[in-house]
Write a structure and sequence with these properties.
Blueprint (H helix, E strand, L loop, with lengths): L3 E12 L2 E12 L3 E5 L6 H9 L6 E6 L5 E4 L11 H5 L5 H15 L2 H14 L2 H13 L14 H14 L4 E5 L7 H13 L3 E5 L3 H7 L2 E6 L2 E5 L3 H33 L11 H14 L22 E10 L2 E11 L4 E6 L5 H8 L7 E6 L5 E4 L12 H6 L4 E5 L2 E4 H6 L17 H14 L4 E5 L7 H12 L4 E5 L3 H7 L2 E7 L2 E5 L3 H23 L18 H30 L6 H29 L1
Parallel strand pairs: 3-7, 3-8, 5-6, 6-7, 12-18, 12-19, 14-17, 17-18
Antiparallel strand pairs: 1-2, 1-4, 8-9, 10-11, 10-13, 15-16, 19-20
Helix pairs in contact: 3-4, 5-6, 9-10, 18-19
Length: 624
């Protein structure tokens, strides 16, 4: 029987007059993988913060199972200045992390006495496997410089360090707030596979629909200040949510019809009011509330035309660029076509954003140049572009760009009307920008980009912090956009819906132009990877001679290989004896001369044993 890991009861949270959620309750059982979905500004991150203990509710209770190991990944992890990758990953308060921290610091200082004590502590805490695990996880997350300071890392690297920190401690229950933000696609797919294979219990907020669909077996929706549960993946949730809203709208319509009758009853002569049944009066007000309730999707409506764009867009003439020894572009030749929609993918740091800055003229190529058409009007939505005066209201930020936005005879909007299409109600438009959530800021930023009437949209990571409803409408808008589009994104679903071909930045200045969306590229790549692997296995597989029921002589050990195998047997015996002697020395508690050197030798012996055993296995299989 599955255990209860978490129980939420009667939870309420508000900020001033704005109620985020009221009297909500739900449970999380062992093994469940739950996705939490809601519109921006309705309290997703606040709810996770409350559950993780980083915020407090107005009322209600949160109960975890006793001794449950919980890991929490906030949306924007932060660390004090001067923190190294090693410090961040080993900042937990477990006996293993304390022992590994002390051991690593003692080795780094070369302090003999401290190293002796640290080795003893590592043995007492059984922390050697813990050290191996944290180095293994960092390697899988492509983090190799343990001494690098956090402030020198990109947003994606910081997210990976924070992720490594919580995975190292092997929590039973993970709380993740937008875990895919700032991660490149390879890292997202690695995390997706890790969570799918793991028996870990999960509660997460994410806008990545493939991630949700492939991992989650339950969806919680925060809507209308309440919570709704759906036992299934994201696609199941979409189907059942539509049925729920249809049923609720039908109930509202029935309530409205009944309200007409009750309203006539309530409006009868006032002197008869005293004789009316109080229960029916109370029921009338409850009915009135239900009849006036609105159930709408709250979608962003982007009915905005682009300005005219000519046939000449841009041409890259032998463009090269490098940061020192790191080559970003190597002799790029390309002519961009009218109405082209290009997606760009690649690992963090390979130059995706640098290419965009070169195209916009923010950077100058090392050699070559871009020739941009005279009718091109860029609209750039960047990762770092959200820079508002936080003392201003939302409506002021829009009016600073234009009081009236004119697209054509049929599409003219005041600043207030335009913001309303982005879900900013009249009340929301009077809010200070400082009071907006991260997703609301992104939505406002997108509105200000489109207010400038671009005909060439460049979107650099547009999906970070936007809710799923907004993303769906943005996807529909881009599909009908009469202009050019370049999108840099890690959101595979978003890319699949919006681009017609894909540039893959492979590193060292090389770009692969694939004629399809990301999923089509990935399927092509996986197929060719499998073909290459099968070919390599076929070449390595021993071939049988046609006329003999024996192995090919070429597959037998050579004289030198037989000698090597004998030497490996002797060497492994010596290495294992040396390791056993060092284990006994470290466990003896006696004073050790040159303890730092012996500890370093211990690590080297383990590595030599691993290498020798792999070679021994290779030769042994060939011998059999």
């Amino acid at each position: 029987m599955a255990l209860s890991y978490l129980q939420i009861e009667d939870l309420t949270k508000s900020f001033g007059a704005d109620v985020l959620f009221e009297h909500i309750g739900f449970g999380v059982m062992e093994g469940e993988k739950i996705g939490l979905i809601a519109k921006n500004g309705t309290g997703k991150s606040t709810l996770l913060n409350i559950i993780a203990g980083a915020d407090t509710p107005d009322s209600g209770t949160i109960t975890f199972r006793n001794d449950l190991r919980v890991g929490y990944l906030p949306q924007s992890p932060s660390y004090p200045g001067g923190t190294t990758v090693m410090d961040a990953c080993l900042s937990g308060d477990t006996k293993e992390s304390r022992a590994v921290r002390a051991y690593e610091r003692a080795i780094k200082r070369g302090d003999g006495d401290a190293t002796t004590a640290a080795i003893q502590a590592m043995d007492n805490a059984a922390a050697w496997d813990y050290e191996d695990r944290f180095k293994q996880i960092l390697t899988m997350l492509k983090i190799t410089d343990y001494e690098q300071r956090i402030e020198q890392l990109s947003g994606g690297q910081i997210k990976r360090v924070a992720l490594a920190h919580i995975l190292i401690d092997e929590p039973q229950f993970l709380i993740l707030d937008e875990p895919t933000n700032h991660l490149d696609i390879d890292m997202i797919e690695w995390l997706e596979n890790y969570l799918k294979r793991s028996h870990i219990t999960l509660l997460m907020v994410t806008h990545d629909r493939y991630f949700l669909d492939n991992i989650c077996n339950k969806i919680l929706e925060l809507d209308q200040q309440g919570i709704y549960a759906y036992q299934g993946n994201y696609n199941y949730y979409l189907e059942k949510r539509a049925e729920r809203i249809e049923a609720e709208n039908a109930a509202v319509e029935r309530a409205r019809n009944l309200l007409r009758t009750e309203l006539d009853w309530m409006r009868r002569q006032p002197q008869a009011r005293a004789h009316k049944a109080q229960y029916r009066i109370d029921a009338f007000y409850d009915l009135k509330e239900r009849a006036t309730r609105r159930y709408d999707a709250g979608d962003v409506q982007l009915e905005v035309n682009s300005t005219y764009i000519g046939n000449k867009i841009f041409t890259a003439h032998d463009v090269s660029f490098a940061w020192g020894d790191k080559v970003i572009l190597d002799s790029l030749q390309y002519t961009f076509a009218r109405y082209e929609k290009l997606g760009i993918v690649g690992d963090n740091g390979v130059g995706k954003t640098t290419f965009i800055r070169l195209l916009l003229g923010e950077l100058q190529p090392t050699s070559g140049h871009f020739d941009v058409g005279t009718t091109v009007r860029f609209g750039y939505y960047s990762q770092q572009g959200i820079e508002f005066d936080e003392t201003k209201r939302v409506i002021d930020a829009a009016r600073d760009i234009a009081e009236v936005i004119y697209f054509d005879e049929k599409h003219q909007y005041t600043a207030a009307q335009f913001l309303n299409k982005f879900l900013f109600t009249a009340r929301d438009q009077q809010k200070l920008i400082a009071k907006l959530s991260g997703g609301e800021r992104r939505r406002l930023y997108l509105a200000t980009v489109l207010m400038r009437k671009p005909n060439f949209l460049i979107l650099d990571e547009p999906t970070n912090d936007l809710d799923i409803a907004t993303l769906a409408i943005l996807e529909d808008y881009l599909a009908n956009f009469k202009g050019c589009v370049i999108i840099v994104s890690h959101d595979r679903y978003f890319m699949d819906r919006t681009v017609d071909h894909t540039w893959v930045f492979t590193g060292d200045g090389h770009i692969k132009d694939f004629p399809g969306n990301y999923s089509e590229y990935r399927a092509w790549k996986d197929y060719h990877d499998r073909q290459a692997a099968e070919q390599a296995r076929a070449q390595a597989k021993p071939q049988e001679k046609k006329n003999y029921n024996t192995r090919d002589r070429s597959n037998r050990l050579t004289f030198k290989e037989r000698q090597e195998l004998e030497q490996l047997n002797q060497r492994l015996e010596q290495l294992n004896q040396e390791k056993a002697d060092l284990d006994a020395l470290f466990a003896s508690g006696q004073t050790i001369d040159d303890v730092a050197a012996k500890a370093a030798r211990y690590e080297a012996v383990k590595q030599e044993i691993d290498t020798a055993e792999m070679r021994w296995l290779e030769l042994s299989e060939k011998q059999n």
